[in-house]
Write a structure and sequence with these properties.
Chain lengths: ~450, ~130
């Protein structure tokens, strides 16, 4: 039955982080853990349709995977013969015992460790993402290659190299202490946000856009393990509130539609409701962090029925808080958008002028500079800024959006732009740092 | 007799469905629901957001607010149907029909003691209607 197969696939992929994480703890070797898991999956596909799904798929996969890998070792060392297949398919009693042994805290640390090894500091961002998608999510090399628009061979090589780097490092298999666990959580959160941003900035590449959904799935899993971490709540809220806008972010031609021009009826209410519930929960902890603040900004946009209802003064205050917490020119740039709404474009331009050196290679800096100048009727300055922005655009959609501004500028001869349509303020707020690019 | 069907399943699985898969399951469930609605047996039904969005209020003195669901279980309460059927056999038949449309997990079939329909305005608060 196809229903069965769909259910089995969903159960296997949901159990994967826990199962591979536990197998990694047993074997302390990523390749062995992955092979063991593959073996277990093959047996699940054969066994589950006949015997029905096990009560705890992850425990079943861990147990069968471990046995299969141990059999492999025994077979290679020619000590004993392989046990007959039937002994493997009757697992009910054994399963119960494994469930007992897989203590909830082991499970948490297994999943966290598996995510954490993908965050090896020597690995560039793109390799961290590729490794997480391969190992934790179980996407095929082909799927990942398609998302990154590289050949399968190139992606295979990238992942192999990343794995070698991880294997050479000293992955910690001891139970982490509280401080170390907090550090790991922070590193994993940053990596998950990279995965999300990779999808969010994908424009009209659907294979890459799927990474948003995958990042949300993994963050939800992490939050289920660490239910009281406000920053993980904030991260999940941020992802959901941003992803909720996806249906409205591009028009039929694949052009960017700015936040204030988006059809808010297209926003995904279910994701927004979940995001709002999460940020409300997080704020109760009174332990602010960068993800919570960005999510709070996204929540103010989500709560505004129309662009005019947006509480820009509060957004300005939130970005001011974020600047204090994690000073960065990109955050100041985002704050300038709010300042332009509250105090006008002149104030916003004054605020971003000192950033010119640091952000000279950043698309959104020139896009915003152009838009603010346009609003002030300074067409020549606007033109220069838009020209720079277009040269720095990362996607066709970004370039197309700036092109619209330029075309409008060319078409308007009147130096006093009284009749021009209200200018648009550029970067979509919320994304805290420019996507790191490498290899 | 009124029964609640409490839907339990692994939310890691259910919330990982892609849009297509989710749509297919909901469409199959919709067929069963429509049929029961037409025969006057299906009352309100609702789907809950993941337990990660849940908060638990412990009625201690002072009260305690805890992140997450009340019960930590392998399968989580994901939704509720209210049905009006003659007896347990018929309730089990409804559970079977819904289960055929959406395999995996379990339904707890629980007779109702009191049913308050509530304010009609309260059920439109930005929640997606299925």
């Amino acid at each position: 039955m196809s229903n069965d197969l769909a259910w089995i696939n969903a159960a296997i992929s949901a159990a994967r982080p826990q199962a591979v994480g536990a197998l990694l703890r047993y074997f302390r070797d990523l390749d062995t853990a992955e092979e063991a898991f593959q073996d277990a999956c093959l047996r699940a596909l054969k066994n589950w349709p006949q015997n029905g799904p096990p009560r705890d798929p992850a425990a079943w996969l861990i147990m069968v995977g471990r046995n299969a890998a141990l059999d492999g070792v025994r077979k290679r060392s020619r000590l004993t013969d392989l046990p007959p297949e039937e002994t493997l398919s009757d697992l009910d009693d054994a399963e119960e015992r494994v469930v007992d042994r897989i203590d909830a805290s082991d499970y948490r640390d297994d999943v966290l460790r598996l995510l954490f090894i993908c965050c090896h500091p020597d690995l560039p961002a793109t390799q961290q993402i590729a490794l997480a998608l391969r190992i934790v999510s179980g996407l095929s090399v082909k799927q990942i290659a398609r998302a990154f628009l590289v050949s399968e061979a190139a992606m295979e090589q990238r992942i192999t190299r990343a794995k070698a780097r991880v294997a050479a490092g000293d992955a910690q298999f001891e139970t982490p202490g509280a401080v170390e666990r907090a550090e790991r959580l922070a590193a994993v959160a940053a990596m998950l946000y990279l995965v999300f941003n990779e999808g969010y900035s994908a424009g009209d590449n659907p294979a890459r856009a799927q990474l948003c959904g995958e990042a949300i799935r993994l963050t939800r899993l992490l939050l289920r393990l660490y239910q009281t971490e406000p920053e993980i709540m904030g991260l999940l809220a941020l992802m959901l509130l941003q992803h909720a806008r996806t249906p409205a972010r591009f028009d039929d031609q694949g052009q960017i539609v700015l936040l204030e021009d988006q059809d808010r009826a297209l926003w995904n209410r279910q994701m927004i409701n979940e995001g709002l519930a999460l940020i409300d929960k997080a704020m109760r902890h009174r332990r602010p962090g960068a993800y919570q603040i960005q999510a709070a900004v996204a929540a103010l946009h989500a709560r505004a029925a129309t662009p005019a209802d947006t509480d820009w003064a509060q957004i300005d205050r939130l970005y001011a808080g974020l600047e204090r917490l994690t000073p960065s020119p990109v955050i100041t740039l985002n704050r300038a958008v709010a300042v332009s709404k509250v105090s006008g474009p002149e104030a916003a331009l004054a605020m971003i002028a000192p950033l010119a050196d640091k952000l000279s290679g950043y698309f959104h800096f020139h896009g915003l500079t152009g838009a603010l100048n346009l609003e002030l009727g300074r067409h020549a300055e606007a033109r220069v800024a838009f020209d720079r922005a277009i040269a720095l655009a990362n996607t066709a959609a970004e370039a197309g959006h700036i092109r619209q501004h330029l075309d409008r500028l060319m078409a308007e001869h009147a130096p006093l732009g009284d009749e021009s349509r209200p200018p648009e303020i550029s970067p979509e707020p919320g994304v805290g740092s420019p996507t790191r690019r490498s290899s | 007799m009124l029964y609640a069907l409490l839907c339990y399943n692994d939310e890691d699985v259910v919330w990982a469905w892609d849009k297509k898969q989710d749509g297919e399951v909901m469409a199959r469930l919709g067929v069963v629901r429509d049929r029961l609605e037409k025969s006057g047996k299906m009352g309100p039904s609702l789907r809950l957001l993941p337990t990660t969005a849940a908060t638990t209020f412990r009625k201690t003195d002072p009260p305690l607010v805890i992140d997450g669901p009340f019960a930590e279980t392998k399968e989580q309460l994901l939704g509720i149907y209210i049905i009006d059927v003659a007896d347990l056999d018929e309730a089990l038949q409804v559970a079977k029909d819904l289960g055929d449309a959406n395999p995996g997990g379990a339904y707890e079939i629980r007779p109702l003691a009191v049913y308050n329909a509530g304010s009609p305005q309260a059920v439109t608060g930005g929640v997606v209607a299925a």
